[in-house]
Automatic annotation (TrEMBL):
UniProt name for this protein: Bifunctional tRNA (Adenosine(37)-N6)-threonylcarbamoyltransferase complex dimerization subunit type 1 TsaB/ribosomal-protein-alanine acetyltransferase RimI
Alphabetical UniProt keywords: Acyltransferase, Cytoplasm, Transferase
Molecular function GO terms recorded: N-acetyltransferase activity
Gene3D superfamilies: 3.30.420.40, 3.40.630.30
GO biological process terms held by the UniProt record: tRNA threonylcarbamoyladenosine modification
PANTHER family for this protein: ACETYLTRANSFERASE, ACETYLTRANSFERASE YPEA
SUPFAM superfamilies xref list: Actin-like ATPase domain, Acyl-CoA N-acyltransferases (Nat)
Pfam families given in the database record: Acetyltransf_1, TsaD
Family to which this protein belongs: Belongs to the acetyltransferase family. RimI subfamily.
Taxonomic source organism: Mycolicibacter minnesotensis
Amino acid sequence: MTRMILTIDTATPAVTAGLVNLDQAGRPTVRAERVTVDARAHAERLTPNVLGALADAGRSMADVTAVVVGCGPGPFTGLRVGMASAAAYGHALGIPVYGVCSLDAIGVRTTESTLVVTDARRREVYWARYRDGARVAGPAVCAPAVVDPADAVLVAGSPAHTELFGLPALDIAYPTPAGLVAAVRDWDHPTASLVPLYLRRPDAKPPIAAAAPVLLGALVPGDAVRCAELEAQLFGGDDPWPAEAFSRAIGARDHHYVAARVGNTVVGYGGIARLGRTPPFEYEVHTIGVDKAHQGRGIGRRLLADLLEYADGGVVHLEVRTDNTPAIALYRDVGFVETGLRKRYYRNGADAYTMRREGLS
């Protein structure tokens, strides 16, 4: 099927809109592109750039069959302009909307091992690392001096920041229409709910939310949609589970799924499965996730403790991204050790450690 795709990105100072034709073989052709580099003009320039790109391509909005939008990481004010507009276009036209990581729209066009950095303000950068166009680390935000280039031999992104890393710089400063389209991993499954990648916690939090008690209880099928939303927020590039997968897992035999709730809202979840049919049983942790707004409160540790209690002293296995330092530290703290490395384990090419906790006598 031939697609006419409207592309939008406002995660960087570049206000980008473009039209890309995707033929039946999946080959993209950029029909038009309008870019305004002005960190203070996202709201003012996006609509004119969209209309200008349509005019340049000789198309109307009725010709658009899909929208692809960069979901960050990026500053709140600019990012919400593009995402809200993309959602509005999709709703008004009745067409699918695909959200992608804006860093991926740069990194997907790179080769070898490449570091991508963009301006996060506050003397920090958003960054991710890619190997032959697939993300293997990040996205994250920190001071440039803290970024670990690892084996990167090239750098791309914000010119003011690429020069800080002493690597040859590629001439790819901002997400482009071609890059945004290339960053879509699965055209058969549009993004159910666009989730912005802010990465930073809000500067101000409602006191009641910070003080509200977190209660653990059973995860039920009715929680599947909320869990899928959190998966997309936390693991957007790592094969996040859709709601259907949660529904199947929650009701499956020999599975144990637990929810952390603040009031009636699920803010964390975890799942484990018993392996085999005869004792001594071993177990595999399927997933653990905590809403970013509630991280740092020990919820992940409590969820893991509940799963390990279900394992009842049996051997427990799990996989974790090699760059997920907080999770690895937690697992080590309760007795897990690395047992192997799975190269390119996740859909985006990131590596994973396999970890094991021996049975308790």
